[in-house]
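From the pipeline queue, job 12 of 40. The input is one protein chain; the requested action is below.

Action: predict structure.
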Amino acid sequence: MKTSSLFPTLDEKEPLRTPEQVRSRFERSGISVAAWARSQGFNVVLTHMVAAGQRKSLRGQSHQIAVALGMKRGGDTDL
């Protein structure tokens, strides 16, 4: 996964982004959700669902998308 200047990584103290904030960033930037998803190597439909808050994003690619959008913290991947 590439880092994105549209959605820089959140530090520990920053609040998580809401679906409304994510949508607003896309609208202000002029970049479509689909174009961003493709540039990051994510499934376009799944990205739309995560950005709209329609997925819990507990694991897998939906979790990775939510982290990249700043809607979730990355956390440890070691189990």
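Job complete. The two ends are 20 Å apart (CA to CA).
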